[in-house]
Design brief:
- There is one protein chain.
- The protein is α/β, with parallel strands linked by helices.
- It is built from 13 helices and 16 strands.
- The model has no long low-confidence stretch (mean pLDDT 94).
- Keywords: Amino-acid biosynthesis, ATP-binding, Coiled coil, Kinase, Nucleotide-binding, Transferase.
- Pfam families: AA_kinase, ACT_9.
- It catalyses: L-aspartate + ATP = 4-phospho-L-aspartate + ADP.
Length: 440
Amino acid sequence: MKVLKFGGTSVGKPERMQSVSQLITADNDQKIVVLSALSGTTNSLVEISQSLSEGKKEQAKQQIDKLENHYRTFCDELVKQEAGRASAKAVVDEHFEFLNIILKISFNEALNKDILAQGELLSTRLFCVYLEEAGIPAVLIPALDFMSIDEFEEPEIPKIKIKLATLIDQHKGQYIFITQGYICRNARGEVDNLKRGGSDYSASLIGAAIQASEVQIWTDIDGMHNNDPRVVKKTFPIEQLSFDEAAELAYFGAKILHPASIWPAQHFNIPVKLLNTMQPEARGTIITEMPNGNGVKAIAAKDGIIAIKIKSSRMLLAYGFLRKIFEIFEKYRTPIDMITTSEVAVSITIDNQQYLDQILKELQPFGTVELDHHQTIVSIVGNEVAATPSIITKLFAAMEEIPLRMISYGGSRHNISILINGQFKERTLQVLNKGLFGLE
């Protein structure tokens, strides 16, 4: 059984949704199809939710009406027969009735999660309407019936496995199952989500739960590229990556893949393919356990980084100092990306400033705290890159004119990371593309 995930751009237009139906019927393999919301929908729902949280109900009503009109037009182009149009209209009526009802309800975080879930609920139900009109047998299995997270927002794979198997067993003889990405239920049974980009995570978790033969992530680009094609003119898709290499790239900024999505597939050794809905014949990228040779595979950049430097003479020979520092970040559930130390100072980076004020307050007793916003981590990823001297030589030669804030080397054999001011990001990606790949 395969898992096929299609992102927002892959289902964002009626003709693309119709193309997806061709892709999922290209073979007779049993499969679970995971859909994101139509492109732009989640952003619109975030705006609606924001307006409601600020008490701007008239503005929220205008935003709801605009989104509803978009879906009405979408349905007119998606289905042509009278029965199909009636079904599509009923789906849109139901979900936008809900969005209009919430205008009369006091806003809270639980309601916010309900609002954000509407995009995936709409896309999957409308896709099923289209499949029915096209005569393609398929079963909708709601993600809210099996996808769950615990009180620490971690997926409950054993529970997911049991619930999903039960749902599939109820439809013996069916080959195509449709479900939502991104959305889930939390430990309180409320509607929740796996955060932005979570449809990749959903697909990987489903793949792990059913021990899939492979997980396919369909987007609008032909696989993972060696550099950011939005910044660098000449890039190329990578044919094969190891799980470790893909995890590094996803975490440090490669937009094609959600950072959390590698772990479930890696844990259960399920191959992941990154494919292009617009060019289904392209080979894309396959991610497996084994690396395909040594050397630099790709460069990724992660923006919005905050560098924190704690300087203290008391750090000299003081055991327990770092533990106390790390405990503060643990307390506020804020991951650290990079760290460098000296006898009198420690520098770390974070990408989440939700609890920054509280963290800084608790760091003050340890010494002088300095802060740098708008930083970027650039990561050079590939098998054994940190153990290959020639790569280090090329890296620093290429970076000769760019100021470095921090360097992380040796923490992983697959990754060398550097911290720079965000204003140098584009130039850095370009000079590294030339220095490491020979591409202008």
